[in-house]
């Protein structure tokens, strides 16, 4: 079963028929349908077979539809050798949408329906072994039918290629990551396992894979990929913030920024106890604002004690929060953090929340521009942004907070 | 130079009260005692404290001296002592370090350069209302407010003092009538709103040191909060800037 994206990529189908990728009536700089098609073409001779042999990066996918009976299975490209980059978002910063689509399309998803707690199932066991591997795993999958050929796009999960039910599966003995294997046999609680691996510098994406494959805990079960990404971001972020909250405040205003895939990221850090906000501005004709005529701005925030409800804007909130917490921990400072994201029209398809995590990390890896006052900092911010800073402030609970909070200096003269 | 002996928990209270707002502080010693005044990096909160020489068991200071202290470091040193222990403090300009004596142990601590720490000026505020209230009552209200909001409104009129917080769906309200207060002096009604992240730390600190809290209020105006302990020989005062409704 294919998981539907949050919104359809196309809109009025008739315009696509009238256009056929030549006039670009949909208003996007490139035709998303062609985009899929081109990538598909390149892969066609390899994918249009019922049997695929290749090296899984390693990569697995756990669907969420029908929970607790879900489609699980490995993903593999029709190629051998070192395919690890195909499923390591930590290595993707600076890649274009074309690159991402191109290589993610190569990942063919094998599907096998199983109850999330059924660990006696053979394919379930294989899937777990693959998730435990630290090196690509060579395997051969025979599908029931030729994998059906289009790209699957999700909001939070990185896209992948065609998928089909697994008929037979053969794999070499995976070389397992000893740290993960130990946690598996020791039945370490999921939360503790996530944190232990993170402290040992295991990639967040690898932790998430292992968590999704149900390798942690006493009662082991598969966790849909989509949920696992946010669960891991949230768990690590919360833990880091416990430490961050013991540190002294930042004593200046720090501005960080980066651009990638036609997204502009601006991070504002200001002297305060921990508080955080992520606001996204979707230009018309971007992935999630395909029909809009106006820029749509959405955000979520938390104060010192965190939030109780799941963020309306979804997994990206937790991904950016993790990146911010990592940076503050490294600086040994606590601060207010506002992440502004302008999504410009070149961002034509969703690529997953890794994009948020890795880009905020990348922005924060560069030396900050530092200012002594909020005014000066915001003046600089306004020089970076395309949308007027006034509109950003109106949309931001925290920036409004910073502005409403008077300073003692405001009262010096009576 | 100066030297003195003081109860370690008194010193710890001073460090705790100050580190709510800053991580580095300038402490001054003169013939009357130890004092300090610091504003936090966001310029929202200020502390002004004074430890009179009477709060010390022994005190000696020839001429006014100022030293820069890494509060976390000094707090760590004070942990060596138990509450009620008398510790010795000694500073000699030639030595350039603060010597802390805990029992027979001498711990010399490097100091920070105070030339980078400007003197904090106290804003001249006209605060028409003065309320003396039970610290425990205020503490309880602030704790309840924290669960539902990030800010709280303090109000007073001739007859009562009020703390109110409103969340999206919930309300916290503490109303204390004249009879339930130690004293109230308020001719015109006053009302100001304050950020809880600061206020709650300040009130927590007050609660662990004093039963009474003196609050001065105005309209959309900073809050002044004062309390004393160690026989009133240690006095602390916080100022907190208000939040203004949009």
- Contiguous low-pLDDT stretches of chain B (5 residues minimum) are none
Shape of chain B: elongated
Task: Give the count of structural domains of chain A.
Answer: 3
The number of domains of chain B: 2
Helix content of chain A: 25-40%
User: Any idea what the CATH architecture of the largest domain in chain B is?
Assistant: Roll
Strands of the widest sheet of chain B, in order across it, are: 6-2-3-4-18-17-16-10-14
Give the oligomeric state: heterodimer
Please give the CATH class of the largest domain in chain B: Alpha Beta
The largest β sheet of chain B comes out as:
9 strands, antiparallel
Shape of chain A: globular
Give structural notes:
The complex is a heterodimer of chains A (414) and B (246). With 414 residues, chain A is of the alpha+beta class. Chain A has three domains: 13-178, no CATH class; 185-244; 253-406, no CATH class. Helix content of chain A is 35%, strand content 20%. Chain A has helices at 13-19, 32-47, 97-104, 122-132, 178-185, 190-199, 204-212, 225-244, 315-331, 354-364, 374-384, 389-395, 397-404, and strands spanning 51-56, 60-62, 69-76, 108-115, 137-143, 163-171, 253-260, 263-270, 275-282, 296-302, 336-343, 369-371. In chain A, the strands form two sheets. In chain A, strands 1-5-6-4-3-2 form a six-stranded mixed β-sheet, with helices on one face. In chain A, helix 6 packs antiparallel against helix 7 and helix 8 (225-244) packs parallel to helix 9. The termini of chain A are far apart. In chain B, the strands form three sheets. A nine-stranded antiparallel β-sheet of chain B has the order 6-2-3-4-18-17-16-10-14. Chain B has a five-stranded antiparallel β-sheet with strand order 5-1-7-8-9. Chain B has a four-stranded antiparallel β-sheet with strand order 13-12-11-15. In chain B, helix 1 packs antiparallel against helix 2. The termini of chain B are far apart. Chain B has 246 residues and is α+β, with helices and mostly antiparallel strands. Chain B has two domains: 2-115, DNA Polymerase III, Chain A, domain 2, CATH 3.10.150.10; 129-240, Box (Proliferating Cell Nuclear Antigen), CATH 3.70.10. Chain B has helices spanning 8-19, 71-78, 135-146, 196-207; strands at residues 2-7, 24-30, 33-39, 45-52, 58-61, 65-70, 86-91, 97-102, 105-110, 129-134, 151-156, 160-166, 171-177, 183-185, 190-195, 212-217, 223-229, 234-240. The longest helix of chain B has 12 residues, at 8-19. The interface between A and B is medium-sized, with 25 and 29 residues.
